[in-house]
């Protein structure tokens, strides 16, 4: 009988430990998703300011980062090319505002995350013409030194 009680006790302890880990993991993922959602909102606000120096801290600065705008004929690869692509985009408009149309879909993985968000782009061309369209905006983040950093960003224009 004592052996059965020990066995049941060990089984209960093991089950409680596993459940505790699962609950903690779920809470940690929820917290990470909230952090990424806030980071995306910060990105949209900073990009709307059209100042690359404000976006720089959100990106990894290495040769593997990638940026693709809908009008690009090829990807900007590497931090210097990404900066140049942003600057060209910022220089092509006198105003540019990004705003999420709905909460992002977030896929969390150990060490990285992928977010997809429909984003409304409202801009004014240098000519004064109003520009408005929706992008499906996908961003890839990597966890580095306890921070999420962008390593890839791709925008696809949603057909009218």
Topology, element by element:
Elements: H1 2-48, H2 52-55, E1 66-68, E2 76-77, H3 79-91, E3 93-100, E4 105-109, E5 112-125, E6 130-144, E7 147-157
Parallel strand pairs: 1-7
Antiparallel strand pairs: 1-2, 3-5, 4-5, 5-6, 6-7
Polypeptide structure, described:
The protein has 160 residues and is α+β, with helices and mostly antiparallel strands. It has one domain: Nuclear Transport Factor 2, Chain: A (Roll), CATH 3.10.450. It is 40% helix and 36% strand. It is built from 3 helices and 7 strands, in the order ααββαβββββ. Strands 1, 2, 3, 4, 5, 6 and 7 form a 7-stranded mixed β-sheet that branches. A hairpin with a 2-residue loop joins β4 and β5 (112-125). The longest helix has 47 residues, at 2-48. The protein is globular, with a radius of gyration of 22 Å.
């Amino acid at each position: 009988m004592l052996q059965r009680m020990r066995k049941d006790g060990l089984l209960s302890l093991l089950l409680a430990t596993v459940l505790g880990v699962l609950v903690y993991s779920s809470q940690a993922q929820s917290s990470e998703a909230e952090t990424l959602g806030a980071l995306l909102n910060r990105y949209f606000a900073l990009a709307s300011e059209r100042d690359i120096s404000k976006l720089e801290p959100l990106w990894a600065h290495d040769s593997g980062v990638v940026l693709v705008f809908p009008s690009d004929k090829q990807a900007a690869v590497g931090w210097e090319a990404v900066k140049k692509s942003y600057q060209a985009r910022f220089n092509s408009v006198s105003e540019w505002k990004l705003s999420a149309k709905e909460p992002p879909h977030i896929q969390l993985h150990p060490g990285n995350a992928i977010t997809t968000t429909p984003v409304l782009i409202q801009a004014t061309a240098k000519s004064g013409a109003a520009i408005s369209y929706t992008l499906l905006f996908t961003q890839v983040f990597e966890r580095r030194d306890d921070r999420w950093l962008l390593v890839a960003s791709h925008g696809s224009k949603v057909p009218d």
